[in-house]
Amino acid sequence: MSSVSGALTETETVEMAGEGRLRIPGQPSAARPTRPARSQRVGDRGSRNSICEWPPSLLSVLVVAVAAVVCYANSVDGHFVFDDSEAVVNNEDLRPNMPLWNLLHNDFWGTRLTHNHSHKSYRPLTVLSFRYGWWNYWMSEGLKPWGFHVTNVLLHCLVSVLSLLVYDRLFGGHSPRAALLSALLFSVHPVHSEAVAGVVGRADLLCALLYFLSFLVYCSAVSIKGSFHQSSLVILSMGLAALAMLAKEQGITVIGLCSAYDIIIASRIHPSSISSFLYKNICIPFSKKRRKSVNGFWDNGSVNSRVSCSDEEEGEVELAALRPLWLRHFAMLMTGIVILLLRWRVMGSIPPTFQIVDNPASFSDSFIIRILTYNYIFALNVWLLVCPEWLCFDWSMGCVPLLNWRDPRVAAVVTLWLGIAGILWRVTTLRSSPTHRSLIMSLALTVIPFLPATNLFFRVGFVIAERVLYLPSAGFCMLVVLGVRQLAVFSNAKRLLQLGYLYLVVILGVRACWRSSEWRSEKLLFTSGLAVCPLNAKVHYNIAKNAADSGNKTYAVLEYTEALRLNPEYDQAMNNLANILKDERKLTEAELLLRRAVRLREDFAAAWMNLGIVLSSMRRHKEAEESYFTALKHRKKYPDCYYNLGNLYLDQQKYEDAYTAWRNATSLKPTHTVAWSNMIIMLDNIGEMYRAELVAQEALSVLPLEPSLHFNLANTLGKAGRFAEAEKHFSEALSLDPNNSVYYTNLGTNPLCVLYHRWKKLDKAETLYKQALSLNPGLQSAKDNLALLYKTLINSGRH
């Protein structure tokens, strides 16, 4: 409690300085205080020449680290949920056999950046972190999500600890306890749940880590003496900024934060002076007033010790002191331009395309509606930081209806801007002081990282995404601590404030634990979304998809129907609902849904393929073939479509066409087991035993542990009379899948086609039949064959 008390009553260093504003030439100025000696440069930098000028105490580090881990530890045993499936499980770029070069050409989801459907999210560093490391390898039992979750929790812990140094810098290096309180709030804030508990949030965590490192290196650069060392650190800082952008796009905004720190903290320039200074020194560069206007620009301790000279000579001296500031900003500007140009080039010089359901406000034709909705979304983001109760995995599709002037939610927009106006007024009118500068930097850390999500520069593919608040929340936590500290200064209820802060930390921590537990499974996650966004069709869609995957088709149909009621043009819901109806043999209804889906989105390859499956089931083979070809036109690398096309040709007894289609499927996806199996079975059935054996051996070279391939090869070898080899592969199939009753049955089938009957090992056949029936008592083929076996034994006098 002592540390909290000390932070809340922490006093500021008194500065004998004026307002720190630009003195307009021609106006009388007050006598300026003597500036410090040359060795004590801007921001008390004389002895601050390393990145970690204030080494946080071991206790501070432990408190923040433990809080960060405890709040999100329960997500470690969670599954892959929501976007994790596309970004990790189904992302071909994560396969060890895929070339690393692909990471430089594909987006975060594994789609080519030049593809029409790419979201242009270029994050190769994040994808690389998914691909490598002992925790991410494909193991014998499959891809393990726990390794990804452990890494995310550890990264959040590291970022939280690193925030101690960042806050120390932003507080001016004189408030270690305030830095601790801010870092503690940051470590437990529930809005981080999506970034930490969701594997996809790795992008935000890596970006934040590199973001903070870039900022700290830049802080060290402006503190150090010597142009070579300073230049080296600035270059290193900009390199880390580029890496942050390779983790996630908002990483580039660290350049803006570095600029704000350089001006506000390091150079101690008052915001009200900036516009006047730029006008006098850039817009009128050849005016004689240019040099004089610099006088009074700095507040106390900004340049070298004052010398006895004329106003014009003094202006030259102070302009010389400005030169490093300009050079650093020029370096940052050029870095930003180069990074953005390279990013644009990598994207194929084409902006991303999104659907209207992803961000409805950005597609509105009304300028007023767009502006009002955008501002209401800003207000919601602020509310999520203030009261993180309304947390949802997805905010699209009607979750935030568009606003007009008569909407009562406009009150939230007015409240937001009244608050912003009040803060800006305080920022521009308060005299320069450590608290004043910290206030500005807390606002900068809140606003600058959030800028890419504002729709001001380009359209984004979401309405609200809690993970993008990971960095802005750092500024918000600092703002809260500043407010509490000011209340402590002007209030006698310090003990009450201390208890209030501790209560806030506990409440946020409990909420973070609860929310991270909801990210452990899709069922919990999707169900939690209903309480926040009941009008969001995507929430109902995901609930339906989860229900269908778990076998609850009835509930899935109800939720898909509700999703379509909320969004009648939801083509993905139509496609999935049609698949369920197809399985229930409601083919006409399925066809209507799929045709409607492809009318809404002509390049919807999955819907075209599913339409082909439905038409094939209805024996409309020609139309089915046309649907498959249309799907392949829109998605050339589509192994599942080739597989279904092969099935269509098999139904028509076009065996070579079927073989070619399945070959295309396995060429695109060598692990396509059912395509390999179909080739083997078809060649076996048409009497081409040699080709069937070759295909089976080729398939096993790719999938040596696939029991169905061993089983099909054993059948082929058994028909060819190669019983010993057949028994070997049958046994291999059984060892790989010992609970498959079909394997036992086929090992002992009738005398014409089964191994042990042909081999006259009837005792073994009987044993296998009984094992099959013990696994599946209702297996009729096993009962029939066992009865036939007993009949054979009786006839032979052996029973």
TrEMBL record:
The DUF1736 domain, residue ranges: 350-420
Pfam families cross-referenced by the UniProt entry: TMTC_DUF1736, TPR_1, TPR_10, TPR_8
Biased composition regions of type Polar residues, renumbered to the chain: 1-11
Compartment(s) of residence: Endoplasmic reticulum; Membrane
GO biological process, one term: endoplasmic reticulum unfolded protein response
Enzyme class: transferase
UniProtKB keywords: Endoplasmic reticulum, Membrane, Repeat, TPR repeat, Transferase, Transmembrane, Transmembrane helix
GO molecular function (one): dolichyl-phosphate-mannose-protein mannosyltransferase activity
GO cellular component: endoplasmic reticulum; membrane
Reaction equations catalysed: a di-trans,poly-cis-dolichyl beta-D-mannosyl phosphate + L-threonyl-[protein] = 3-O-(alpha-D-mannosyl)-L-threonyl-[protein] + a di-trans,poly-cis-dolichyl phosphate + H(+); a di-trans,poly-cis-dolichyl beta-D-mannosyl phosphate + L-seryl-[protein] = 3-O-(alpha-D-mannosyl)-L-seryl-[protein] + a di-trans,poly-cis-dolichyl phosphate + H(+)
Region (Disordered): 1-48
Domain of life: Eukaryota
TPR repeat positions: 537-570, 639-672, 707-740
Membrane topology, from the record: Multi-pass membrane protein
Family: Belongs to the TMTC family.
Functional description taken from the UniProt entry: Transfers mannosyl residues to the hydroxyl group of serine or threonine residues.
Name this polypeptide is given: dolichyl-phosphate-mannose--protein mannosyltransferase
Native source species: Timema monikensis
